[in-house]
């Protein structure tokens, strides 16, 4: 479970989190490699990109993510494009989306 969350999670309930927890050093290393260009951004800008990506993964659409974030669809599209530009990975490509989801889960569980 993420730091500060007092709950229980059984083995296999969250497969990606289980993988991250089983080898935190590798997860951290891969996350830093994927985010290398993002790490130079100001914290607020970086967090806006992460929050947008999380909303997109939670909802599965730009319009729904925009509603969840109380912003315009164009804002979501801009942020997702910026994330793709800086990481080389798109939420719209399955393998690349999986890598981005892995990164977000690693940050959620371990911080950065």
Report, as a whole number of angstroms, the end-to-end distance. 16 Å
The biggest beta sheet, please?
none
Rg (CA only) = 14 Å
Helix content: 55-70%
Highest-level CATH class: Mainly Alpha
Provide the residue-averaged pLDDT.
91
Low-confidence stretches: none
How many domains, as an integer? 1
Strand content: under 5%
CATH-defined superfamily: PucR C-terminal helix-turn-helix domain
- The CATH architecture assignment turns out to be Orthogonal Bundle
Q: Give helix and strand order, one letter per element, not per position.
A: HHHHHH
Explain how this protein is built:
α4 (62-69) crosses α5. 68% of the residues lie in helices and 0% in strands. The radius of gyration is 14 Å and the shape is globular. The chain has 112 residues and is mainly alpha-helical. It has a single domain (15-110), classed as PucR C-terminal helix-turn-helix domain (Arc Repressor Mutant, subunit A), CATH 1.10.10.2840. The longest helix is centred in the middle third of the chain and has 17 residues, at 43-59. It contains six helices and no strands. The two termini are 16 Å apart. The mean pLDDT is 91.
Task: List its traits.
Arc Repressor Mutant, subunit A; mainly alpha; 112 residues
Set down the secondary structure blueprint.
Layout: H1 15-22, H2 24-34, H3 43-59, H4 62-69, H5 73-87, H6 94-110
Helix pairs in contact: 1-2, 1-6, 2-6, 3-4, 3-5, 4-5
């Amino acid at each position: 479970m993420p730091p500060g969350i007092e709950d229980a999670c059984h083995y296999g309930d969250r497969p990606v989190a289980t993988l991250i927890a089983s080898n935190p050093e590798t997860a951290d290393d891969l996350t830093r490699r994927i985010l290398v260009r993002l790490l130079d951004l100001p914290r607020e800008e970086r967090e806006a990109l992460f929050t947008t990506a999380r909303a997109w993964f939670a909802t599965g659409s730009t319009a729904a993510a925009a509603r969840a974030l109380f912003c315009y669809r164009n804002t979501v599209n801009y942020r997702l494009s910026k994330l793709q530009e800086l990481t080389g990975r798109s939420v719209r490509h399955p393998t690349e989306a999986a890598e981005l989801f892995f990164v977000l889960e690693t940050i959620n569980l371990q911080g950065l």
